[in-house]
Amino acid sequence: MDIYRLISQTQAEYARCIDDGRLEDWPGFFEPNCLYRITTADNYQQGYEASIIHADSRGMLQDRVSALRDANIYEQHRYRHILGAPAILSEDRAEARCETPFMVARIMHDGATDLFATGRYLDRYRLADGRASLVERIVVCDSSRIDTLLALPL
Amino acid sequence: MPDQTVQGAALTWPLEGLARVPYWVFQRDDVYSLEHTRLFQGPYWHFLCLEVEIPKPGDFRTTHVGDTPVIVARDQDGEIYVFENRCAHRGALICLKDRGLAKDFSCVYHAWTYDLRGNLTGVAFREGIRGQGGMPPGFRMEDHAPRRLRVALVHGLVFGSFSDAVPPVEEYLGEEILGRIGRVFAGRTPMVLGRFTQMLPNNWKLYMENVKDSYHASILHLFFTTFQLNRLSMKGGIIVDPTGGHHVSWSAVDHAAQRDAEYAKQNIRSDSGYSLADPSLLDGFPEFPDGVTLQILSVFPGFVLQQIQNAIAVRQILPRGTHRTALNWTYLGFAEDTPEQRRARLKQANLVGPAGYISMEDGCVGGFVQRGIAGAAEECAVLEMGGTTAESSPSRVTEASVRGFWKAYRGGMGL
Q1: Which among A48, A57, A71 has the least Cβ separation from residue B222?
Q2: Does B197 touch chain A (CB under 8 A)?
Q3: Does B347 sit within 8 Å of A48, measured CB to CB?
Q4: Nearest residue of A to residue B358 by CA position?
Q5: Residues B4, B26, B363, B387, CA torsion sign
Q6: How far is B368 from chain A (nearest CA, A)?
Q7: Virtual torsion, Cα B20, B23, B26, B29, nearest 10 deg
Q8: Could you tell me if B237 and B290 are in contact, meaning their C-beta atoms sit under 8 angstroms apart?
């Protein structure tokens, strides 16, 4: 499979995983040693390191999921991710860097639907055994505002 | 939507005093307007930004005091000046940027120009063109300017006030609160690590109540409790200043403490078994000699300084109408941090903010109240945990600091 198709397919699966509510499968898209951050364009541009979510291991992503399942309180809701085409920025046999725009609608349990976030994924994928797995995903939201709270991952 | 049915009805506080909060106070447009006159433009200090955000002459930031837009700028003399972001001509915003570096400010509408202190220094076509038009000869630029605010600096925090009657900030805060701010900042250089805005679907006072409510912390926030970051049975306490408006809730983790039977008896969600796959999230470093691992401090009406382990942040609470609030988070580190300490702060930041393990719920719980009280303007909240007064307490099973908020609020509002 060519890299473009491999990454596109992986990203589509990533979005389905979250949107279908299979959060337990979500950390599986990442390498054990990975970096996942959610930040905003303003913070990213300023070079600020703090994040809305900052995980530097797959274990921390698993902890996010268990906290969402067992600890945190929030109203039931779902996301619908619409991903744009990935722009492959660099690639070799072992690794690819790419950037992908996204829009995420949030659907509350009562049906209220909002455009919750737009932004881009800045990704570094490890390529091995016909698979692409995330070494790094920096989620850069366009807006500096988060409505109410951010529970489910982007 | 505001409860239109009660707009205009008398603003009569229930006879029970501090132990009751009438729900109209979170709903009515007339109350919101009065808050702007009496609190946001009244004798109170309002947090604006950090000094380190505008380190050099010409640096500026724009923000708000209540609904009112203001510019915070550092002039060539090195001092900080604050003035309304409102052109003295026709009222347009003078500055459209969030921050930047400027020699002066020029209104885009008709190019009236202001210096970094908010003085009007130029009026386009003041003399007219070829002897035609222009301002009348008696027009004096010094008679026209956006309103200037008083400025106070507290350990690198910039506060502003519209009022000449506001006491000096040291007196306003009092020794105890001032000391607790100094405890976090003194002798160090704060650095901004990140800035996020959380839009809350509720009245600003519901968020302030939540901040001051130590009763809810270990009940609503399971994450907090399970890892013994905050248990009501730990060593700790509540400080309520004499005005009631400012507070500190603090605790120290006692790792040796056994699980306490009182807790188990309450059948609170907090006792589900739960462990982290990667506990490095909580790896911290001893930062304060007093061993206090949690200090939530509020300054009336809308400022919060937070230390949760090594996660340090300031929060600016800005009303955005009766039913909406902007919560501006600024995450902080210090220039003196080692790389390891910085990393710990970045990881512990997962505890707070819009996706915070222990603050996420605070983003929605105010909305639950705002929606819950719709149509119940004349009903009241009950604040009797820990008594009916607003005093410091060694127990955190109390709503004393929430009552303190209402004491200060009612005093300021004349309600």
Answers
A1: A71
A2: yes
A3: no
A4: A72
A5: negative
A6: 10
A7: -120
A8: no
pLDDT band at B413 (very low <50, low <70, confident <90, very high): very high
- Distance, first Cα to last Cα, chain B: 23
> In angstroms, what separates the C-alpha of A32 from chain B's closest C-alpha?
11
- Kindly determine whether residue B196 and residue A149, on different chains, have CB atoms separated by under 8 Å: no
Per-residue pLDDT reduced to its tens digit, A116-149:
999 999 999 999 999 999 999 999 999 999 999 9
The token pair at B46 is 């309002």
Residue showing tokens 């930062």: B287
Cα–Cα dist A151/A140, whole Å? 16
Q: Which of A52-56, B93-97, B138-142, B216-220 has the lowest mean pLDDT?
A: B216-220
**Quick one: closest CA in B to A33, which residue?**
B278
User: pLDDT of B250-300, one tens digit each?
Assistant: 988 765 554 454 555 555 444 555 678 898 998 899 999 998 999 999 999
Residue among B199, B223, B355 minimizing CB distance to A151: B355
Tokens of B199: 């839009």
Q: What is the 3-state secondary structure (H, E, C) of B359-371?
A: CHHHHHHHHHHHH
Packing angle between helix B204-212 and helix B400-413, nearest 10 degrees?
Answer: 140
